[in-house]
Amino acid sequence: MTVTHPKGFRASGVAAGLKASGNADVALIVNDGPDYTAAGVFTANRVKAAPVLWSQQVLKGGVVRAVVLNSGGANACTGSQGFRDTHATAEHTATVLRGGAHRMMVGPGDVAVCSTGLIGELLPMDRLLPGVSAAAKALAADGGPRAAEAIMTTDTVAKNAVAQRDGWSVGGIAKGAGMLAPALATMLVVITTDASADNEVLDAALRAATRVTFDRIDADGCMSTNDTVLLLANGASDRQPTPAELTAAVTEVCHDLAQQLIADAEGATKHIAIEVRGAASEADAVQVGRVVARNNLVKTAFFGNDPNWGRILAAVGTTSAAFEPDRIDVAINGVWICKGGAAAEDRGKVDLSGREVTVTINLREGEMGATIWTTDLSHAYVHENSAYSS
């Protein structure tokens, strides 16, 4: 149930010494064809890491035969040397894949590069490049789980997903546990499919999927420099689904991975769904959901098991969404504790003892809606992001 579930993909994960822990830190994913179409979406942060800039160029060519990923260093804010190191990584990957038993027809311009870890430090290339060589030797058709482990940073679990269809499938791996915010997260995601699809169809499917999945998780309102989601297709199943069928399968995998990301968010004790209903537009619904998800007073209230609907209304009031304050309804875990902008059912009826929380906000302005997934703000989150660099 991973990135190598679709036919014609191999992967690996090895320890190259980039992490002080000695855990796996270099992953390689290879597309064995016969097609090599691809699409990608990247961070909206204006400060972009060298591997993001490189991979954006690779995607313009429309062909991705391999993806090399490392944890233990973001290679972000590293200047021209950082970009040269990314280029060298792609070139080395292509060289090892052309040689030995691989004999792949691959050049550096066919290799996407992804990095994650601490910002502002150069990668130790004397360890990374041998790690790439080791990863190439370890490539296997069942290597997806090892690749998922190699890209973990503050993650506590590896993240894998699959959507199986009649004769074809979509698989994926992801990493991410902090800086989860709209416009992606501090995450790396590689999705594969053995379906046949051209670049235009892949791009449309990926953008439609990320819009309602990765772009709607928001743990702490922070945006990273390295966010990358890649979708690779090889046609090995000899099946060509309709664009709608492909989009549905890709969205299923993205949703699964996005929920795993938010469930593993740093220090979280609550997994919170902010469901906005009755909005005049989808944009209004998303705006309201995001502002509530990012509000520290709301987040700390949930950490303290306090169903404080007043904080929720105050957050909604900072948006430009269409609504009348005396018409808003709010429920927490199914208890409508606010009706018409005022107190309704006894807030003591709300059970917040479990991890799963659902906040429903009805703006009563239209028929549109959206859901944003977030977490609480805990002591553990503050400790994890202040006690050491990540």
Can you give a write-up of this model?
This protein is α+β, with helices and mostly antiparallel strands. Helix content is 31%, strand content 23%. It has 10 helices and 15 strands. It has helices spanning 50-60, 79-98, 125-137, 144-150, 199-211, 243-263, 282-294, 296-303, 309-316, 379-384, and strands at residues 9-14, 26-31, 37-42, 66-70, 111-115, 159-164, 169-175, 188-193, 228-233, 271-279, 329-332, 335-339, 342-343, 356-362, 368-375. The strands form 3 sheets. Strands 13-12-11-14-10-15 form a 6-stranded mixed sheet. A 5-stranded mixed sheet has the order 3-9-8-7-6, with helices on both faces. A 4-stranded mixed sheet has the order 1-2-4-5. A hairpin with a 4-residue loop joins strand 6 (159-164) and strand 7. The longest helix has 21 residues, at 243-263. The two termini are 28 Å apart. The mean pLDDT is 94.
Q: Outline the biggest β-sheet.
A: 6 strands, mixed
Strand order of the largest sheet: 13-12-11-14-10-15
Query: What's the mean pLDDT score?
Result: 94
Gross geometry: globular
Structural category is: alpha+beta
Helix content: 25-40%
- Low-pLDDT residue intervals, each spanning 5 or more residues: none
Compute the separation of the termini in Å: 28 Å
Number of distinct beta strands: 15
CA radius of gyration is: 22 Å
Element order: H for helix, E for strand: EEEHEHEHHEEEHEHEHHHEEEEEH
